[in-house]
Amino acid sequence: MGSVTGSASYHYRLLSSAEVRLTKQTIANYIQDISAYAREIRIAWESAEGCEDEEMRATYLERVRSLTSEMERIKTLFYEKRALIAPIRNLPAELLAFIFEIHVGEHDHNPLVILAVCRSWRYIARGVPSLWTRIHVKIRPLGLQNDRALQWYGPNAHLGIVVRHTEEIKQVIQLAGNRPLDITLDATIISTNIAAFDLVCSSSHRWRSLRWRLESSKQGWTLAEHWAGKDIAFPLLKKLAIDQACPQTDLDILLQTIENTATKLDMVVAHSTVSEPLYRRKKMLKGVKHLRWSGSFHPPAYLLLGPQPTTVPLWEEFRALETLYLFRNLPQYSAVDELQEPSPLRALAFEGSPFTNLTGWGPNLLLLRYMHIESVPHSMYANPPGPQSIQLPTTTHFTLTNETYLPLSWFSLPSLACLELYGGVSAGKAARESIDSIWNDELIGTAPVPSETLHIQPVGSQHIIINILKYLSNIKYLHLYHRSPSEISKRLLELLAQGPKNQKDTPKSPRKASRSSVDKRAEWTAKTCPNLRSMTIVCKRVREQEREECLQAFRSIRRARLGTKSEIQSLVLTLYSKWGRGSENEASKMCMNF
Fold this sequence. Notes:
The protein is an alpha/beta fold.
């Protein structure tokens, strides 16, 4: 549980019983006053509407404005008094501190928001060191403050508290107490910010994760000379991410220091342009358990672990890998070397085809639980693996992001529980034939069928999802993602909304029905997804008039299956008014749980 420290001047006082009674009486008086004002406003407004004399009408309207203003003032006092007896104010400071830790830690919220609530919370939050361990040090010249955002996919994805000056850095580090720090260092070295850079680096022995982007605009400045003679070490460092903008000479010094002092490093997130300095640190790489490698959006940046080989000796250098993510990385002529021995790999994700032969990997991936394949190149379809030739006996979660679902048929996944399908497929007859060819025994062979969950973003014909559910009818959890309402399968919603034959004669609530009708209804099983227990639909670009149609469809599904063997326990509909970058933050969102 969180502990409150470093706030000796703070006294967290609860209201006495007498103060609580007085506050409740004051609140009751405010409620009476608000009701009285509301009546007066209604009378004045009705008088104004029925008055033909313009001068008298203006007098009534002025009275409405005056009464409304006074009522709003009383409401403000009412809310303030009500907040004094809110249940959360009765919590001890230690429990509030624990809640703050959960709020900030699990949801990546900025602790500065807590400081703005009230003086009491500000005192408590400043005394909880764990709230202040994520620090984003942004020391750049003014003209570069709006430079491009950092590419980031690794640890401490939340940027943390942004600090730009020496005093801010010092204060936040002090608030963090002796806790390990998660540092994002986004710096361009100039004469005026060297002191701030030194202050951050002086806490290197406390860094738990480091996201590094360092440049220099100071002529003759190098990291090697600057760190010479200083006590820079990373004994607690577990996670490292390196941005593509780092000069390789300075990066060499950083990696050398990490290799010599960071004995706990187990995660690396890196960009293809920093491959050679990283490859030279073989001692450091051998203990890495989690690797995420991303290339550039623009050619000709390559991921080449080493001095431009055609085959990357991945398994030789990263023997302890448990998770591997390779995205936008390998040129077509390069490939990752073959996996020749059992691997501790638990999660594998890649884009394109960096692996020359996945077919023989199964016996060496007995711990693999998650696989993600993205953008299978067209060259793979010319000479594809055979149906179910890639055997992954322990994989429970499989994600495919691709133009077609065909690569799914190459895998044998007997333990599959969750299947995610994203990307476009051709519309109409071609789409149906493509789906049939994947899951039909008489054609290619049966593709993996998840035992529990299907996440899918069907693109193209509305009938795609219906054709897929013909073969995946026993799933329990269905999640659909649509870019617009036109992609929602109305036929699917109609099929899901089909209840017992006597649906029209059955009351909306089975509690009001006769015992015999309830018994018959309780034994009824749906033809479409009979075992479905939860369904979520997320849709973008929803116009106001389309919302009611979606809501009505969900209400019909809920009523149709209520009280039956196929009753759906959770129906969630999330609608966004538009779709664009940052739509979750910018768009008007409506989430309904039926």
